C-alpha cells in the first residue's frame, strides 16, 4: 500500500470511507439506464435478468453481469416494492399445468390476472390445455393438428421447438396418445427394485437382497 492509502485509512471515521476507490465512482455505460432500473425496481420488477432484457432492447451495450452487480449492490438494499410481487416463472408454470377443475379459487384469480397482462401466455395456455386434453383422453388423432397450430406460432419459440421435437418421433408419440397400453406398471416395478437396492446397500450381500426382492 502507498502512503496516501495508509493516511486515508487512518483518517476514516466510518467503515464505508475505507472502501471508497476510483472504480466505485467511475462512469460506466450503465449510468444512463440506472434511473430506469430504479423505477422498474420500485414498480415490482426484481428480476435482474428481466431488467437486463428490458434495457438491452433500449440499446444498452452492457452485459447481464453489470446489471446483476448493480442490482446486488444498490437495489437489493432498498425497501421492497409496495404491493404484491409478480408470480415467479415456476408458479405460473404450475398454474398452467394444473387441471382447471383442480385449481383453488385464489389460484384461478391469480392465473386470470397473469393471462390478462400477457397475451403470449394466453395463447400458450390454450395450447397446453388442448395438449393435456389429448393426453388424458387418448385423442392421438388430433396430434397432427395440434403440432401444426403450435409450429405456426411466432411468439412462442419454446412451444414451437417442442412441437418440432414431437415430429422427430411421431410414431411413438402417436402410439402413446392413442393406445391404451403403457409402461407404467414396469416403471413402478423398476422404482421399487431401486428403492430396495438403496435400502440394502452396504448392509447385506446379494442373497438377502434377492430374497427380499422375491418376497416383496
TrEMBL record:
Domain Transposase IS204/IS1001/IS1096/IS1165 DDE: residue ranges: 92-212
Regions crossing the membrane: none
Xref: InterPro entries: Transpos_ISL3 (IPR047951), Transposase_DDE (IPR002560)
Superkingdom in the source lineage: Bacteria
Matches recorded under PANTHER family: TRANSPOSASE FOR INSERTION SEQUENCE ELEMENT IS1557
The protein's name in its UniProt record: Transposase IS204/IS1001/IS1096/IS1165 DDE domain-containing protein
Source organism (scientific name): Streptomyces malaysiensis
Amino acid at each position: 500500500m502507498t502512503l496516501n492509502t495508509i493516511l486515508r485509512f487512518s483518517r476514516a471515521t466510518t467503515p464505508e470511507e475505507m472502501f471508497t476507490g476510483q472504480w466505485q465512482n467511475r462512469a460506466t455505460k450503465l449510468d444512463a439506464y440506472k434511473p430506469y432500473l430504479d423505477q422498474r425496481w420500485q414498480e415490482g420488477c426484481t428480476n435482474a435478468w428481466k431488467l437486463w432484457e428490458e434495457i438491452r432492447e433500449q440499446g444498452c451495450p452492457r452485459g447481464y453481469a453489470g446489471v446483476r452487480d448493480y442490482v446486488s449492490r444498490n437495489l437489493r438494499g432498498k425497501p421492497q416494492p409496495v404491493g404484491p410481487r409478480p408470480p415467479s416463472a415456476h408458479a405460473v408454470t404450475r398454474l398452467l399445468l394444473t387441471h382447471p377443475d383442480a385449481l383453488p379459487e385464489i389460484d384461478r384469480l391469480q392465473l386470470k390476472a397473469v393471462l390478462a397482462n400477457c397475451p403470449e401466455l394466453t395463447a400458450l395456455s390454450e395450447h397446453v390445455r388442448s395438449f393435456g386434453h389429448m393426453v388424458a383422453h387418448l385423442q392421438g388423432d388430433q396430434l397432427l393438428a395440434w403440432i401444426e397450430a403450435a409450429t405456426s406460432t411466432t411468439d412462442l419459440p419454446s412451444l414451437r421447438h417442442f412441437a418440432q421435437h414431437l415430429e422427430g418421433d411421431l410414431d411413438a408419440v402417436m402410439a402413446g396418445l392413442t393406445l391404451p397400453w403403457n409402461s407404467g406398471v414396469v416403471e413402478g416395478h423398476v422404482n421399487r427394485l431401486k428403492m430396495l437396492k438403496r435400502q440394502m446397500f452396504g448392509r447385506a450381500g446379494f442373497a438377502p437382497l434377492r430374497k427380499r426382492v422375491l418376497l416383496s
